[in-house]
User: Fold these one by one.
Assistant:
Number 1:
Amino acid sequence: MEENRTENEQPVVSETSVSSETALLTQMRDLHKKQLFWQKISTCCIAVMAATVVIVAIAVVPKTVSTIHNVNQVAIKAQTSLEDMDEMISNITEASSGMNELVKENGEGLTSAVKNLSEIDFEGLNTAIKDLQDAIGPMAQFMNKFK
């Protein structure tokens, strides 16, 4: 704003300064209108993004919580299964140790039994059975006559 002043005078405004001020004010008003327009667009975009985030949170959070719950249950079952497997492995180890002891204890008896069976004279046994049949055969025929 251009002012012509002297020491005790009131400010005098020239006509060109008023028109330039009006032009500046008009430009400022137009600029503020543009800024307001873009701020409204920005506000709408932010509101849409916030609504999207809220909707996604409402849709995703319960599913995520249930998924985490299911994962925890699976982890608990896996832990229980691992503990059961450890117990089964220790039982199998104890059973195999028991089988080893059983084989050791009965191995000598089985070996001696097999050895005794292999030492049996089957030909002599067959001959003895035939001789017994020959000796008892006539007596059996004699007894059958009394029936």
Number 2:
Amino acid sequence: MFGIRLPRMATIFLAGAFLLIAGLLAAMYLWLPKATLTITTGPNGGVAQRFISAFIATTEAAHPRIHFETVSVPDLGASAKALEERKVNIALARSDLPPPVNGQTLVILRRDVIAIVLPPGSPIENVGQLAGKTVAIPTSPVQKENSHALDLILSYFNVSPEAVKRVFLDPSQIGAALRSKRAAAVLAVGPIGPGQVVDTVAAVAKATRGTPSILDLDEAEAIAKRNPGFEEIDIPKGAFKGNPSIPDDDAKGVAVTYRFVVPTTMLNAVAGALARSILKTKAKLVELAPAANQIEAPDPDEKNPILPIHPGVAAYLASGDQSFFDSFQTYFYFIGILLSVVGSAIALTAGLFSNRKLRSDQENIFRLLTIGNEALTASSSELDALQQEFRTILESCVGNLAEGSTEAGQAAVSLAVDHARHSISQRRAALGRTSEPRDLDTGPAG
């Protein structure tokens, strides 16, 4: 077509080379191992456990190369411990419980109000008046954690937790317990919307044939400051019942959050990708687990020391999708360079065993790759040493070229030189040197 006819052997060689490359790429795809992430399941039978199952199904469907392995834990404390002991990559945590020391927030799964529900006509007007009384707590997979939250609130008001008796009852028995004076109040923990608080209010209203009330915590802001695992929350009028409205006016309260937490050592790119996947697939998650409609991104400006946002998630939220994908370009650059060098090295090895400079070229290639990788984290003095070694290898490469190094060898060496040069220059810029960058192209002329 272009007036060029390749010799028959050259044509066969090129066709074979293309087939070999295609075969290698296919094998890499088929044999490439899946990325396996371990995740705690949360307490057995809890709402969070159903959400985690939906999250795993949705993520694996969208990303076939990602596989999750679940780790069963008896409670939320054990979930945090599993992350702390590096047994899992992702753990379910609740903000009012002791956090894993190495944990940072990926996403907020739900925000639950801690509500003290009172029967109609209750004389209790503040938390201090619960001393000597009995509080009913609906049975649930997190009843122990809910009781602990009550301990924290009581302690703020200088009420000993031992002074308030607890009785754990099936939700169907809660209303009868208040009607019979077996309990003076109910501690319910749930979202503003369908959940345990709404169900408790309905049960008490039905059993007492009256209008229950929610104990207003005017000190909510101070409680949250003393216990950073709590958040101050505004409870709007009618949040838990519309007619008559419960509460009957806007009220103050405290809330806890359930979160996915990851270790501080997780790469920023990985944490950002996981957060993006969860937030972008929220609609699909809701179809499988309605509780997923409460998922929200953590606040990048939140200064709370308890479970701070992971920097990779903060970077994604601050930059958006386009900048997030741009951040991967550096990774792809180095991967491309390495694949190109390896491909050239394979071609060099396959066809040129007789070349007496082959071993020297290969040693130079792999050392240049190593220099490039080491340069990315080198100190200023280490970088100077790497640059000097780079010059020495460059002189050797030029000498081999002068003595007849093959074209395939030249291509591989050239890519490796570019990789090392780029890494050293990038690290110099990162170290913020004020002097002019050194000329990395200085070396013997070919």
